Amino acid sequence: MFGGGSGGGSVYWGRKGGEFKGIVVLFAWISIPRNHLKSYVDLYSSLGWNSLVSHADFLSAFYPEKALSLAYILLNELFEELRIRPCPIVFVAFSGGPKACMYKVFQIIQGTCGGHINLDENRLLRNCVSGHIYDSSPLDFTSDLGAQFALPPAIQKMPGPSKLVSWFAKGVTSALDGLYLTRFDSQRAEYWQTLYSSVDFGAPYLVLFSETDHLAPYRSIYRFAQRLQDLGGDVKLVKWNVSPHIGHYKHYPIQYRAAVTNLLEKAASVYSRRIQQLRAGNGLDGMHDEISELICNLQKAAVYSNQSLRRVAVEPGDHFFVPTSTEYHNNRESEPLQDGRKVTTIYLPPSPSINANSVLGQLLFDVCVPKNVEGWDIRFSGSLNGHPIASARMHSPVKGIKCIRRSRL
């Protein structure tokens, strides 16, 4: 047991260990005794699911601070298990369980309450939430409902219209009116809105209710399910004509088990499909990053090559000095490279050459190189990198020889 006392209730594992398909988190209230709750633990265990139980105190449904404290205890324990082995999670709410703890769990995961968990834990929990089951739930909390639950079961079962029972009930109701009305009016809208926002988890719903449940009226339950459907939720309703509050499994075990089994199978399918999508998304993101990096490198190479061709250095080795991107943008004109400036060197492969001793080389040599250079005027017209450049011009062309102006082969 991981919580109790001032924490608003207790959190414990109903079943843990062995081979399992997922984890069901049971949210129970004081309205369901622990020995009754064990039958549900056994049901989910027989279907191959481990169970984590939140059994809230009576006042946790009326004091959000107690519900929040219990929610943190539950999430910490759940995260420790998921960190070892991620798996599908199904939230199962009984009676007042959503108000006593579950809606605070939703708020923590969604980051809409004062407390918060780190981003990795939040992402892990959201990816694992795969289903919701409501059994005789959710309840619409009012002062009248609080008075009904405040009466001990022994007094409720007393035969006859005892004056003592009547006076006791009226006294409890009057006391709860003063306590609950002011608080419920401010909490009620937040409570229902949080339950509706669970549609964002993208998980299917199973709602189990009865027409004769006076604590969870079927009209209220039906409106809740209809609202979830309007918001895009996948909702399945199972209604019995005659069944008491939290007594559906006891009176209709075969139908109850079949409905729960179907929901758990659907939850496992949702989880599996979600994990496949996440893996595919990560793969595409990685491929997109590689393609983007490749395109970026090609663009940079094109820019650098364009600049390099304008800055050919006539030095031994036949290589280019390529400016960095900062140098390129800040200095578009060619400037001498200063000592210590970092440059990138791209070595070019040697250009194709012609062997001078070959027949083609000898022929070109005889045609292009004059045998008599007398009368040529050789002058130095400039320098490149400190070396003089010579130019030649004939005073008078030799008759019979056609001059070829191109000096590069």
Automatic annotation (TrEMBL):
It holds the Pfam family DUF829. It comes from the Eukaryota. This is Uncharacterized protein. It comes from Hevea brasiliensis (Para rubber tree). The lineage of its organism: Eukaryota, Viridiplantae, Streptophyta, Embryophyta, Tracheophyta.
